[in-house]
Write a structure and sequence with these properties.
elongated; about 0% helix; mainly beta; 5 strands; 5-stranded antiparallel sheet
C-alpha cells in the first residue's frame, strides 16, 4: 500500500492484496482499499473508506471527535 500526505490535514492511503489458494479450493481473492482522512480542527476529523473484495463493496463515512 501507499500512504500519502496530500496536505498537512489530508492523508490518503491506497492498498491492494492478492491471495491465491493453490491447495484444496482452487481460487483467489483480490482486495483493494482506499481511505482518506481530513483533520478539521485539533479535536475533529472526518474519514472516508471504501473497501472492495471480489464483488462486495463497502463504503463508510466517519466523524471522529477526540477528547
Amino acid at each position: 500500500g501507499v500512504l500519502a500526505d496530500l496536505t498537512d490535514r489530508w492523508k490518503v492511503m491506497v492498498t491492494g492484496t492478492y491471495l491465491q489458494y493453490p491447495f484444496g479450493e482452487q481460487s483467489h481473492d483480490v482486495r483493494t482499499s482506499i481511505q482518506q482522512r481530513f483533520t478539521i480542527g485539533q479535536n475533529w476529523a472526518i474519514r472516508f473508506e471504501m473497501n472492495d473484495r471480489d464483488e462486495d463493496t463497502e463504503a463508510r463515512f466517519l466523524v471522529h471527535a477526540y477528547f
